[in-house]
Amino acid sequence: MFKRFISNSRFSLLAHFVLWFLIVSQLLRVAFFVWQYDEVSWNIINFFRTLLTGLFFDIGTVAFVSLTAVLYYALMPNRWIGSWADKILVWFFTALTMFILVFTFFAELTFWDEFRTRFNFIAVDYLIYTHEVVSNIEESYPLPLLIGGVLLITAAVLFVFYKRKAFTNTFTHHASLKSRLAVLGTTAVLAFFYGSFITNYQAEWSSNRYNSEISKSGIYSFFAAFRNNQMKYNEFYTSIENDKAFALIKGKLADPNVKFTGKGYSIHRTITDSIPSEEKKNVVFILVESLSGSFLKEFGNKENITPFMDSLAQKSVFFENLYATGTRTVRGMEAVTLCIPPTPGQSIVKRPENDNLFTVCSVFKQKNYDCNFFYGGDGYFDNMNAYFGGNGFTIYDRGRGSVLSDKIKTTRNNISDGEVTFENAWGICDEDIFNKMLKVADTQYKSNKPFFNFIMTTSNHRPYTYPSGKIDIPSGKSRQGAVKYTDFALRELFAKAKTKPWFKNTVFVIIADHCASSAGKDEIDVKNYHIPAFIVNLPENNNQKIEKQCSQIDLWPTLFSMFHWNYESDFFGKNVLDPKFEERALLGTYRKLVLMKKDKVMILSDQKKQASYTWNKQDNSLKPLTMDKSFLKETISWYQTADYLFTNKLLK
Question: Minimal CA–CA distance to 5: which of 383, 588, 16?
Fold first, then answer.
């Protein structure tokens, strides 16, 4: 029957299109296999299962893609078949669909190159923030050549269809009612079946993450992510009674200096220092884009791309064993502002009703600090302005006049053209944003008010461009160059800050938002969550290297302890310097929730699944471990309570 549709039918063109889509999708799948040849499972059964699983999802994808065309072919009266209107509509929409799909296949290759995954919620974000993404593509790839190539391939495929008489058959053969109903019914049933009963996570059949990702269909994954950007914990994850979960977490946060004051399900507490101090040091907080621990010589890197930060490690409070909570900037922001484990789905930074929360800014505001957020791009990106503005920060960003950035509950200050020496798709270079902060700090100092200035850098991001002549790696060539430029910019910042009258009373905190890569063959690539963190310019006797395993969420409780502050807290983080600190790290993706204690790793997945492993730090591998029920209960408690507090608006 399919052969008849191919060669002698009104549906000939549609059949050619479906066959082309399925073949190209499998070729792309094979290309990913070859790309990750040393990390995928080449076991013959696993290989064919990957291809067959992919084919299954490709069929669902092409059913959705073809549905509009099928409706057209099914409803077009026979007397109009082959008319000029019919030919124009069929040629135009076939060509347009082919162009979009060819471009999408190319996009999948570039997305895999960056993230080692099929389309996910990051791709959904990229669809929203078109200015940054389109500019990034223009600066990273030869766009005229890319578009030209897509047009050429589209034309070549259409020419093949034409030579095989797919268009001729489509315009010269009438369709019987039976054939119309058969094609329409089959397509509709497939679309309903996949839309109602098949979920994207069903492609994740393999313990090898790459095999599972390659099994997916990129387009199907994209729309699955679009639908599931937020996930309710109790619906998707293993849970326990709230009483037990909160009792356990309160026990973990308990301390002789802690008094819980919240009622019901709450972790709100007063933290009292044994040697209280009202000293108010200025704080410059720098969240560095994609600064993996593996970039530092301190952690074994031989490329000498972070000489300044390596020098800081010897004269600061340096966290040697600290882990990011996630793989996106908004996850890092969530961790360092809310000190909370990563909740499932999208970061709190991007969720609605995320204003007036208890953040680190709340603590500084209690101490009468002036709080500011500096970003070199347009802060509407990733909802940053709405989040920081709604939680007490004054905004300094490179506004581009987007209509998406109008509703901000704070003062927004635009970084002017005259303050910019270099700019790419993501924003101004790190030197420029640091210089802007220095100007504002000078003004704050004159007003005799302590300040907390939060800076988000942008330079360590594709297209990896920065001002020429600053370092010995040409701009736009590699991430190593971008990292080395950021290191150079930090050196310049400190050199300038040391000349300021406020420097002696200012503490600088430097930490990565996440690692440059998070991909690996296991469920969670633990090594790619390891990030550096520095607290600089405290009294020299405070300087030390902290070997304890800890999390981004522990940074502020540790610093506030070093300040000897009494303060209110809703934080899940703890003071790492406390002799009783229990080492652990909380990691996650938008679907995986992880508790790591030394080399033990517990992973909670949607579908209410759990898995326990031991982590081998030497080869970064996970090996299955017998389930420890108490460890599982603790893991559940961290994430269930965090999700409960935000969902029920109890982090206010």
Answer: 16
Q: What are phi and psi of 625, to 5 degrees?
A: -130, 145
Q: How far apart are CA 606 and CA 301, in angstroms?
A: 36
Q: How far is CA 477 from the centre of its chain?
A: 23
Strand-pair partners of 428: 423
For the stretch 574-610, pLDDT in tens is: 999 999 999 999 999 888 999 999 999 999 988 789 9
Q: Which helix (H) or strand (E) holds 596?
A: strand 593-597
Instruction: State pLDDT tens for residues 75-129.
Output: 999 999 999 999 999 999 999 999 999 999 998 998 888 778 888 766 666 665 5
- Provide the phi-psi class of 513: left if phi over 0, else alpha when psi is between -120 and 50, else beta: alpha
> In Å, how far from its chain's centre is CA 438?
29
For residue 463, whether the previous peptide bond is cis, meaning omega lies within 30 degrees of 0, is yes
- Identity (one letter) of the amino acid at 143? L
The pairing of strands 550-551 and 567-569 is: unpaired
pTM of the shown model? 0.81
pLDDT digits (tens, 9 = 90+) for 499-524: 999 999 999 999 999 998 766 656 78
Tens of pLDDT along 546-576? 999 999 999 999 999 999 999 999 999 999 9
Per DSSP, 344 falls in state: S
Q: Where are the beta strands (DSSP E) in 176-300?
A: 258-260, 269-271, 282-288
Q: Phi/psi zone of residue 281: left (φ > 0), alpha (ψ -120 to 50 degrees), beta?
A: beta
- CA torsion, ordered 44, 47, 48, 50, to nearest 10 deg: 150
Confidence of residue 404 (pLDDT cuts 50, 70, 90): very low
The kind and range of the H/E element at 90 are helix 84-115
Dihedral of CA 629/211/479/453: which sign? negative
Residue with the two structure tokens 């200096």: 257
pLDDT in tens, 243-268: 999 999 999 999 999 999 988 899 99
Phi, psi of 568, rounded to the nearest 5 degrees? -80, 150
Strand pairing category for 317-323 and 550-551? parallel
Question: What span, in angstroms and rounded, lies between the C-alpha atoms of 570 and 501?
Answer: 34
